């Protein structure tokens, strides 16, 4: 029986007079790439921000790897086991690629503030292990040779890869990618798909928000479609593409 990594249900969120989400829920199993799509304004980003702790939901039930979690703050959600990237790249521009990944790894460290202040032997050993793991992750995403380059000097596609490496550094149960293909050229998208495929083969689990429907349908195991904050379809990509509500949402009279 497949292991459930993320199970959320009954998620609703209102902003003033706008009902951004209405009773949305998804279940993601270990090793899946799960897609979340919908027209502009459908509620994708709101949903993403709710489950990762950026927004507080009005209602909802949240389980990660079989344990309830409360999406009350981003750092608490990260500690629980969800790592995310952002649509707008958020790297430490003046830090090296290696240092950026090390920052992500620090959420799993044990030495604490006093160890850092006094540079204890255990702190030094842990820092060396963190640097080693960070280099391994840079190699894994294909930018190991840029470890000592400042993040701002990397190409756009490599910055996206660096964000994914930093997310992986937290040893997450779930990696949530917010439009990772946005702004990429065709070659970079192919490389991104190969990387996501590799992450899946290593039995990691991914939630993917993406405007590139072709990329989602060719990559994801299951897909949920939102429109006006409501879940209008869920299932395998081939089935979702035939759904009349989905066709209407993208091609119908609403023009979105």
From TrEMBL:
Keywords from the UniProt entry: ATP-binding, Cell membrane, Membrane, Nucleotide-binding, Transport
Every ABC transporter domain range: 6-253
Example of a GO MF term: ATP binding
ATP-binding in keyword set: yes
Entry-linked PANTHER family: AMINO ACID ABC TRANSPORTER ATP-BINDING PROTEIN, CONSERVED COMPONENT OF ABC TRANSPORTER FOR NATURAL AMINO ACIDS-RELATED
Designated name of the protein: ABC transporter ATP-binding protein
């Amino acid at each position: 029986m497949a292991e459930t990594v993320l199970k959320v249900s009954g998620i609703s969120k209102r902003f003033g007079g706008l009902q951004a989400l209405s009773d949305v829920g998804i279940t993601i199993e270990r090793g899946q790439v799960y897609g979340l799509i919908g027209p502009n304004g459908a509620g994708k980003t709101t949903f993403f921000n709710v489950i990762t702790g950026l927004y507080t939901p009005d209602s909802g039930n949240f389980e990660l790897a079989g344990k309830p979690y409360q999406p009350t703050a981003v750092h608490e959600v990260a500690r629980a086991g969800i790592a995310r990237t952002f649509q707008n790249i958020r790297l430490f521009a003046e830090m090296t690629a290696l240092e950026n990944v090390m920052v992500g790894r620090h959420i799993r460290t044990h030495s604490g503030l006093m160890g850092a202040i006094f540079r204890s032997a255990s702190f030094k050993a842990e820092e060396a292990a963190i640097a080693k793991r960070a280099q391994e992750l840079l190699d894994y995403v294909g930018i190991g040779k840029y470890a000592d380059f400042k993040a701002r000097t990397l190409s756009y596609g490599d910055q996206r890869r660096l964000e994914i490496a930093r997310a992986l550094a937290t040893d997450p149960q779930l990696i949530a990618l917010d439009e990772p293909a946005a702004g990429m050229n065709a070659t970079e998208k192919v490389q991104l798909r190969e990387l996501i495929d590799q992450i899946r083969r290593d039995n990691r689990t991914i939630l993917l928000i993406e405007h590139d429907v072709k990329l989602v349908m060719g990559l994801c195991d299951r897909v949920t479609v939102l429109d006006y904050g409501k879940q209008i379809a869920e299932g395998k990509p081939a089935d979702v593409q035939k759904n009349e509500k989905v066709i209407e949402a993208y091609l119908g009279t609403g023009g979105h």
